[in-house]
Amino acid sequence: MRVTGKIVRFDGVRGYGFITPDIGGEDVFLHVNDLEVDKHRAVRGAKVSFEIDEGDRGKFAREVRLANDAGPDIDHGSATGDEYFDVLSADEFRHTITEKLLHITPALNAQQILAVRSSFEEVARKHGLIDS
Asked: Are the C-beta atoms of 92 and 123 separated by less than 8 Å?
């Protein structure tokens, strides 16, 4: 039986994560080999449909695809919630973060901006939000 849910965690480097089924119950294991979409689209908050199987280690998802082939339903502040956000290149990400920091906190000096930007970039890489 095909069910729907939301990805609650996915590590693109390690190739696995978890889905919370809309029908309730425990989170279901997700492996990159069971994705029917590019792994960069498997982000936290993405609505997916999938089959659930039972294995030696518990429940796991297979044939995972975006529900209605829609983008993730993530709260991004001003986003409407149903917009799809592309993975940025590292240069695009750095430029965007730098511009936002200059706009939001103009009192930061260059060294502070570089430190904050570096921290954000580390988090973004860890969660697969930017290309390596």
From this structure: no
Half-sphere exposure of residue 85, counting CA atoms within 13 Å on the CB side? 22
Its sign, for the CA torsion 67, 71, 75, 80, is negative
Global pTM reads 0.52
Q: Tell me the three-class secondary structure of 98-130, residue by residue.
A: HHHHHHHCCCCCHHHHHHHHHHHHHHHHHCCCE
CATH code of the domain occupying 2-66: 2.40.50.140
Domain residue limits, the chain: 2-66, 90-127
Per-residue pLDDT of the chain (132 residues; tens, 9 = 90+): 889 999 999 988 889 999 999 999 899 999 999 999 888 888 888 999 999 999 888 999 999 999 865 444 443 333 334 444 556 778 888 888 888 888 788 788 888 888 998 998 888 888 777 765
